[in-house]
Design a protein that fits this description.
InterPro entries: AKR (IPR020471), Aldo/ket_reductase_CS (IPR018170), NAD(P)_OxRdtase_dom_sf (IPR036812), NADP_OxRdtase_dom (IPR023210). Belongs to the aldo/keto reductase family. This is Aldo/keto reductase. Keywords: NADP, Oxidoreductase. It is built from 10 helices and 10 strands. By secondary structure, the chain is of the alpha/beta class. The chain has a domain of about 190 residues: TIM Barrel (Alpha-Beta Barrel). The strands form 2 sheets. Strands 3-4-5-6-7-8-9-10 form an 8-stranded parallel β-sheet. A two-stranded antiparallel sheet has the order 1-2. α2 links the parallel β4 and β5.
């Protein structure tokens, strides 16, 4: 059976496939979406303080009857909460909303130049104190990681970046692998922008799968933790029905050529 977990650089096990709950204007639907995902076998939920739905995530897990240790929760510190003391306070607020004494994974949402070292220091403190099982970053490319690692005591366990064949950065992937940092990919479906790509449709038809399932499968076969987002029950179920087929080496190679810098979020390389 295919392994559905990855082991992070500190020994913590993290599910390979999860649910992203960035859903602006849909917070009323988030609790239901999380309940459906848990029903479909999902055990990784990715939220963030800026999403404003940490309470809904906690309510859904409680309603599911699953224990706290069954569901891996990620949340993130937002840009305006960065800095040492501010991050400690932001974490307390998130943990209270999630109703967790210990959060599985806490990430710096974006690299904010003037605060990122102090923010990381706060994450290291929370990790040392046993409040977080693993710490990491989001939207960090090589220049941000080089700078962080020059002062970090703890190497990030995870780097969450936008990741699809159309936003494929093998250089970031290789860099993180070399440093022992697990890459996690958001927006794997490119928000549906590429579902009519004939090359993608051809691959999907060969496997009797949807284009979305092919995109998720491609990401998983890259060894990347993958968090497709949906608030629709059928789609959530389909997004988790990706362990019964394998893309061939040739198909992976072809998908790797689809890069055209299609992005849902900002390009970290253009930010400072």
């Amino acid at each position: 059976m295919e392994n559905k977990f990855v082991t992070l650089n500190n020994g913590v096990e993290m599910p390979l496939l999860g649910l992203g709950v960035y859903a602006p204007n849909h917070n009323s639907e988030v609790q239901q979406a999380v309940e459906w995902a848990l029903e479909a076998g999902c055990r990784l939920i990715d939220t963030a303080s800026i999403y404003g739905n940490e309470v809904e995530v906690a309510d859904a897990i409680q309603a599911s009857g699953l224990s706290e240790t069954d569901v891996f929760i990620t949340t993130k510190v937002w840009n305006t909460d960065q800095g040492y003391e501010q991050t400690l306070r932001a974490f307390d607020r998130s943990a209270a909303k999630l109703r967790r004494d210990v959060v599985d994974l806490y990430l710096i949402h974006w690299p904010v130049k003037q605060y990122r070292h102090d923010t990381w220091r706060a994450l290291e403190q929370l990790y040392t104190d046993g409040r977080i099982r693993a710490i990491g970053v989001s939207n960090h490319y090589q220049k941000h990681l080089d700078e962080l690692l020059s002062q970090a005591v703890v190497v990030p366990a995870v780097n969450q970046i936008e990741f699809s064949p159309y936003c494929y950065r093998p250089d970031v992937l290789t860099y993180c692998r070399d440093k022992g940092i697990q890459v996690e990919g958001y927006a794997p479906l490119a928000r549906g922008k590429k579902q009519s790509d004939p090359r993608l449709i051809a691959i999907a038809e060969r496997h009797h799968k949807s284009t979305f399932q092919v995109l998720i499968r491609w990401s998983l076969q890259q060894g990347v933790v993958t968090i497709p987002k949906s608030v629709h029950r059928e789609r959530i179920q389909a997004n988790f029905d990706v362990f019964d087929f394998t893309l061939s080496a040739d198909e992976m190679t072809e998908l790797n050529t689809f890069y055209d810098n299609t992005r849902i979020a900002d390009d970290p390389d253009t930010l400072d």
